[in-house]
Amino acid sequence: MEEMEEELKCPVCGSFYREPIILPCSHNLCQACARNILVQTPESESPQSRRASGSGVSDYDYLDLDKMSLYSEADSGYGSYGGFASAPPSPCQKSPNGVRVFPPAMPPPPTHLSPALASVPRNSCITCPQCHRSLILDDRGLRGFPKNRVLEGVIDRYQQSKAAALKCQLCEKAPKEATVMCEQCDVFYCDPCRLRCHPPRGPLAKHRLVPPAQGRVSRRLSPRKVSTCTDHELENHSMYCVQCKMPVCYQCLEEGKHSSHEVKALGAMWKLHKSQLSQALNGLSDRAKEAKEFLVQLRNMVQQIQENSVEFEACLVAQCDALIDALNRRKAQLLARVNKEHEHKLKVVRDQISHCTVKLRQTTGLMEYCLEVIKENDPSGFLQISDALIRRVHLTEDQWGKGTLTPRMTTDFDLSLDNSPLLQSIHQLDFVQVKVPATPILQLEECCTHNNSATLSWKQPPLSTVPADGYILELDDGSGGQFREVYVGKETMCTVDGLHFNSTYNARVKAFNKTGVSQYSKTLVLQTSEVAWFAFDPGSAHSDIIFSNDNLTVTCSSYDDRVVLGKTGFSKGVHYWELTVDRYDNHPDPAFGVARMDVMKDVMLGKDDKAWAMYVDNNRSWFMHNNSHTNRTEGGITKGATIGVLLDLNRKTLTFFINDEQQGPIAFENVEGLFFPAVSLNRNVQVAANGEFEFMTADDRPPEI
């Protein structure tokens, strides 16, 4: 409960709130303190003059919605928002709890009324000392602000809990401290007197026993006043305005400014907001629990740093003693370095402990305050502050999640003593601080191969303090040869395409920064596929392409030609694959061949310089690249025909086959780079791949003409 005390004190006077009122910004002030910080504004900026000019939209208008006032740390006094003349400047002050407040521009006139009830000057303006939002008061003055009865109740319970202990009313001699109070009997009992005079049986078993502090509060509290409307003081709150987020009466709904707003039942909204606040507190409670565990971790780090420091000093002393007298002069300096590092680590961790402790205390205070607010049974009073509390709870929870629960210091000492130099170099002896990056770790669970591609992933070791500017990934040639660089960059994952099938590759990675290069990681052995499985790629295909049979069969929804690529690319070796014509209607001319990844997808294959193809109808075929048609050859396709494609990247040639017979001469020569199997077709054709590539030697190639 003590940690909640800051929530119960006025930001102006620093004392517990007395007759607190709720400002439109959801912050609270004592009614007397609110009067003390009023500032008069020019007559031209009064609510009446603004309403007369047609610019007024509400009883309390912020001078400029959601903007900060012109007041800052570099300025003193009060500043109005844009569009309003500034009030006469006056020096700002600080309240006992450190919040800047604005004193009145002139002493209040003498009056026989109390400061809280005396009328306020015309054209008065008040600035919230917490968020610095300013607003001009209407004719009702401070009476137009709702009173925070929930906060008054929480303060009353808190003060009662801090009061002196209550005594038993039935002890005959020295009264003992009371432990319970019976609400029906209205008597305070100690434990012996309760067992003797108020046994828990018979009619007394139905009596309700409460803690003494709660019993005293229930004794002293008068019957709760019914909440009345600030606009219609004789009317009770009966509904809740969803748009304005405030309780209203029936006159507000019939003739006031809430007549066109959405309203809901007061009790239903009370329960809803209580539920929302409780849910928000659950998340904040988890953060507080994590913070407590984090503090334990930090305190353990202090002990670990102490132990590591002792171990490091012992090692250092042993090494220095081994170098006899020549090392003694240097030993003191080295120990000073270690002690300095030791103190620095302790300071960082202790500072973080202190910061986290303060933040946890504030969080716990807010939680306790919210829990006390939830205990209130006044719907309208609760709803007046529930939105602000929910926002504060969410904001406090978010503040715990921004790296707050991460240690700022490691327990290890990143120092090592180099004792290899000769005795004549002892005067140059110094610590060698490791500044090159730590050796990366290959993440085996994320490394894999698919067909002739390999994907590798790595990471920096945990608690590595030296950042890496980038990484260098190296692979050998698949035959046990020398390593070569295949990737240099900042990413920690890389996919290498175009490897040999049925080959074993060794991979390793190292990190680098401006200081140097780390050691190589452990070598990872990767095995590429023995057989490449053919499948079409939905990710790169035109949107009109229709896939089926696990992406082995394709057709098209358009009468225009559309391109689809295979998933596997080739840059080395000899590769042969076949496609079957499953459907062939109205004598279209589909095209088959290879293409780059960035080939045009909405024209026939071979129309641009990114594809090499053969297009064929039911009678003849042509070769096409960059919209150049060559080598017309007799012989076409029908339903069930098989199209074979031979890509020989060793000889840099591309050859086509129909039903196992070569179609025309070698179609293209000087073909090199990375190629993907490709097909273009329209809705009159359906093509299926056989699902497997063949890898061929020189003796296995189909016969050439």
Can I get a quick summary?
This protein is α+β, with helices and mostly antiparallel strands and 705 residues long. It is 25% helix and 23% strand.
Keywords:
cell projection; nine-stranded antiparallel sheet; extended; 705 residues; alpha+beta; ubiquitin protein ligase activity; zinc; Herpes Virus-1; coiled coil; synapse
Give the SSE map.
Elements: E1 20-22, E2 28-30, H1 31-36, E3 39-40, H2 47-52, E4 93-94, E5 100-101, E6 124-127, E7 134-136, H3 149-162, E8 180-182, E9 187-189, H4 191-197, E10 209-210, H5 212-220, E11 239-241, E12 246-248, H6 250-254, E13 263-265, H7 266-322, H8 324-374, H9 379-400, E14 415-417, E15 431-433, E16 441-442, E17 448-450, E18 453-459, E19 470-475, E20 484-489, E21 493-496, E22 504-512, E23 524-527, E24 545-548, E25 553-556, E26 562-565, E27 574-584, E28 591-595, E29 611-616, E30 620-625, E31 628-634, E32 642-648, E33 653-658, E34 661-662, E35 668-669, E36 676-681, E37 685-689, E38 694-695
Antiparallel strand pairs: 1-2, 3-6, 4-5, 6-7, 8-9, 8-10, 11-12, 11-13, 14-15, 16-18, 17-18, 18-21, 19-20, 19-22, 22-23, 24-25, 25-37, 26-36, 27-32, 27-37, 27-38, 28-29, 28-36, 29-30, 30-31, 32-33, 33-34, 33-35
Helix pairs in contact: 3-5, 7-8, 7-9, 8-9
